[in-house]
Specification:
The chain has about 300 residues and is mostly helical. It has one domain (about 5-280). The protein has 15 helices and no strands. It has helices at about 5-15, 20-25, 30-55, 55-60, 65-85, 90-100, 100-110, 120-140, 145-170, 175-195, 200-205, 205-235, 235-240, 240-255, 265-280. The longest helix is centred in the C-terminal third of the chain and has 29 residues, at about 205-235.
């Protein structure tokens, strides 16, 4: 990978490792609907003009049904549930649980008839990942409630199945354009619930407002643009390796900046889950990929 590719890789590993920290800070002052609304409005305000200027909006809107499903699976449902879950879960644990998305994506692809077979190495990876989750939850379950864990489980399913919509129904749509439309749709969907709560922004501490602004501008709009550049520079498979670095960043930031405990479950479950995900998503063989105008995002949006 080139020097530019490594710079983009490191940047994305950090940028998509910090949303869990920012969400944890934001939900201390704002309800989940307001956090999601703010993130989407800021992201859409930055990406939609770019999409329009490049003439990519109209072609994308021809696939509005698939885009709507993509918005629900990747943004509307997961971001609300993730924000809801972090009202009680630590950012460290949330980031680690979301790291199981590649593992779930491999399983979902197989169940839905994707061509790539499950090799022995990938099956071993799935087994290691399951053991990691059992260890993680088994050692830390004493102080956790079931509902937030179920919410994160739904997030994982949404993040894992969203790329299947992309590969099957939106292969020719620009990734930035699809993201801009999805952000706009999600913002409009939450507007009725979030606008009446906007008065909370006036009395919120600056760090909570800054968390939402950073979440929308850096971790959503800028991150999406950089990710597509990383795909062009390093290829989609190498780009997706950031998925295995993000949770480590999330755990580190949660422990250092929020004072979250580094529990025995985290210390044992983290390496097992990450190793399992790496093995479970390992490609059995390289295959030629047809050229596309701009690859769609296949990594989870934290």
């Amino acid at each position: 990978m080139s020097r530019r590719g490594w710079v983009l890789f490191v940047a994305m590993s950090l940028i998509w490792g910090i949303p869990y920290l920012l969400i944890k800070v934001a939900v201390g002052e704002f309800p989940p609907v307001l956090v999601v609304f703010g993130r989407c409005v800021i992201g859409a305000a930055l990406l939609l003009p770019w999409t329009i200027a490049r003439g990519q909006l109209r072609p994308a809107l021809r696939h509005w049904r698939a885009l709507l499903l993509f918005a629900v699976l990747e943004m509307a449902a997961p971001w609300f549930l993730l924000t809801f879950a972090e009202q009680s879960l630590s950012s460290s644990l949330t980031g680690l649980l979301v790291a199981t998305v590649p593992f779930m994506a491999a399983l979902a692809g197989r169940l839905l008839g994707e061509e790539e077979r499950l090799t022995p190495i990938r099956l071993v990876g799935m087994g290691v990942g399951v053991v990691g989750i059992v260890v993680l939850l088994g050692l830390d379950i004493g102080h956790l409630s079931v509902l937030p864990l179920l919410a994160v489980a739904v997030v994982v399913v949404g993040y894992a199945t969203g790329p299947l919509v992309v590969t099957r129904a939106l292969p020719e749509v620009s990734g930035v354009a699809a993201s801009a439309v999805a952000l706009t749709v999600t913002a409009l969907g939450y507007a009725a619930f979030a606008v009446p709560k906007l008065h909370l922004v006036a009395t919120a501490p600056p760090r909570a407002v800054l968390a939402v602004l950073t979440l929308g501008a850096i971790c959503t709009a800028v991150a999406l643009a950089l990710f597509f550049e990383l795909i062009r520079e390093a290829g989609p498979q190498r780009a997706l390796v950031i998925t295995f670095v993000n949770p480590a960043v999330a755990v580190l930031l949660g422990v250092l900046l929020l004072g979250e405990p580094f529990t025995l479950g985290l210390s044992l479950g983290l390496p097992l889950v990450l190793i399992g995900c790496v093995l479970a998503t390992r490609r059995s063989a390289e295959r030629p990929v047809a050229a596309a105008p701009e690859p769609m995002i296949e990594a989870p949006l934290p």
